[in-house]
Write a structure and sequence with these properties.
The protein has about 300 residues and is an alpha+beta fold. Helix content is about 30%, strand content about 30%.
Length: about 300
């Protein structure tokens, strides 16, 4: 019977086992190379490739499927009618969940849903006046349901799916229930109003350049910036984080969030991340617009 290999040699001969058992050590082996690289073979400031498909889901006002690396998010936009007097500060509500998950809501997913709601409200994505139903005291409220198809998820991918779905959302005409060829909207409203099955209008967003969310991490000691963090290993390998919400077409930054942790984030780090975020926002805009112009939106 052959002698068993030492543990370290076993790990060296099986990278997948190494990555599973000692993920942070495995990550460090790559990032400390010269030049540094990640296990995914991305450079520190390289973003994941992104694919966007729109209008993929039936029975929705708008929908999208966004994939960045191994993370996939699906978003469907639907809506319901309420009395205008009951309308809250936002005409868009969000909910994020993981496909196949059972049990009570996870605090992390609840926090992500709340963050997306607050970010959408602050970004003023569209004028809610266009959702009001003519000649009635009712209005339409949009509901965005985001489903994550992987346990390796991040808020920026979910946010990208929301933006892509909104960009192709069409609002069905709301008409009285006695009109022919209509679909029921809400049985609780008075008078009863239904959605037309054929007449729709485009949801007009407030800007052609959408506010994309781009995340970064800063490693302690080396000060190395990692763009577009992917997975738990990369998240725990950085001691500082920078999240930029920005559009490609102007110089405004909608939101800049910094969490330094043990790491000192310098002005140079912030400038570098903002410049990279602008480039990424332009790239995502281009991918989405190409998808829409090709007739899939």
């Amino acid at each position: 019977m052959s002698e068993l290999q030492p543990f370290a040699e076993t790990l060296s001969s099986s990278p997948q086992l190494f990555a599973r058992l000692l993920p942070t050590v495995y990550f460090d082996r790559y990032i400390t190379l010269d030049p540094p690289i990640r296990p995914s073979l991305r450079s520190p400031t390289q973003f994941r490739p992104c694919r966007i498909n729109t209008s993929a889901l039936p029975n929705t006002f708008g929908s999208s499927v966004v994939r960045m690396g191994e993370c996939i998010a699906v978003c469907g936009i639907t809506g319901y009618i309420i009395d205008s007097s009951e309308a809250g500060p936002s005409a868009l509500y969000t909910n994020v969940d993981v496909v196949g998950r059972t049990g009570p809501p996870q605090s992390e997913l609840m926090s992500m849903s709340e963050w997306m709601y607050e970010t959408a409200l602050a970004a003023n994505l569209f004028d809610p006046a266009q959702l009001k139903i003519e000649d009635t005291a009712q209005t339409l409220v949009l509901q965005a349901q985001v489903q994550l198809l992987s346990q390796m998820y991040s808020g920026d991918v979910a946010w990208a799916a929301l933006l892509a779905a909104l960009a192709v959302t069409r609002i069905p005409k709301a008409i009285l229930a006695d009109d022919e060829e209509t679909l029921t909207a809400d049985f609780a409203t008075e008078p009863v109003i239904r959605f037309s099955s054929s007449e729709t209008k485009k949801l007009e967003l407030n800007s052609e350049n959408l506010p994309w969310c781009i995340n970064f991490g800063v490693m302690e000691g080396t000060g190395l910036v990692l763009a577009d963090l992917e997975g738990r290993v990369e998240e725990v390998s950085v001691q500082g984080s920078i999240t930029v919400i920005t559009s490609a077409g102007n110089n405004s930054i909608q939101n800049l969030s910094i969490s330094a942790g043990k790491s000192l984030i310098s002005k140079d780090h912030i400038r570098q991340c903002i410049a990279l975020a602008k480039q990424r926002a332009a790239e995502l805009d281009s991918i989405l617009q190409s998808q829409i112009h090709n007739g899939n939106g």
